[in-house]
């Protein structure tokens, strides 16, 4: 695996795993280099890959894995969700068991 110019390894995203995600004492820290906001601003890049309607795909470059994961968790938490708590079936005359239509309703969400 090729290392970046500043000595930080690159994270590799494989089909079933993400490798080389270990970080130092705090995000963005490199041995022998002091962390600063100005350096962070210079190294951070957001490259928009695709934008279609309400969808946006982007690459976050120059950021420690822990910060990228924190951003991912924040974005996921802002997605509205919906849940069905109770389902009442009245007079089920079909040969299908009651649990099957209920399961289909939950899968449709």
Highlighted features:
two-stranded antiparallel ribbon, 4 strands, two-stranded antiparallel sheet
Q: What would you say this structure looks like, in words?
A:
There is one protein chain. With 109 residues, the chain is an alpha+beta fold. The chain has a domain of 70 residues. The strands form two sheets. It has a two-stranded antiparallel sheet with strand order 1-2. A two-stranded antiparallel sheet has the order 3-4. A hairpin with a 2-residue loop joins strand 3 and strand 4. The longest helix has 13 residues. The mean pLDDT is 75.
Q: What letter string, H or E per element, gives the SSE order?
A: EEHEEHH
Helix content: 25-40%
General shape = elongated
- Computed over alpha carbons, the radius of gyration is 23 Å
The assigned structural class equals alpha+beta
- Strand count, sense and closure of the main sheet? 2 strands, antiparallel
Brief sketch in words of this structure:
The protein is an alpha+beta fold and 109 residues long. 28% of the residues lie in helices and 17% in strands. It has a two-stranded antiparallel ribbon with strand order 1-2. Strands 3-4 form a two-stranded antiparallel sheet.
Topology:
Blueprint lengths: L11 E2 L4 E2 L17 H7 L1 E8 L2 E7 L3 H13 L21 H10 L1
Antiparallel strand pairs: 1-2, 3-4
């Amino acid at each position: 695996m090729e290392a970046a110019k500043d000595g930080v390894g690159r994270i590799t995203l494989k089909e079933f795993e993400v490798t080389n995600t270990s970080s130092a004492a705090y995000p963005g820290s490199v041995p022998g280099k002091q962390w600063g906001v100005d350096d962070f601003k210079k190294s951070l890049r957001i490259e928009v890959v695709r934008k279609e309607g309400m969808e946006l795909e982007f690459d976050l470059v120059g950021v420690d894995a822990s910060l990228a994961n924190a951003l991912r968790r924040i974005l996921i938490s802002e997605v509205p969700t919906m849940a069905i708590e109770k389902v009442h079936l009245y007079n089920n005359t079909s040969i299908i068991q009651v649990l099957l239509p209920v399961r289909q309703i939950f899968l449709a969400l």
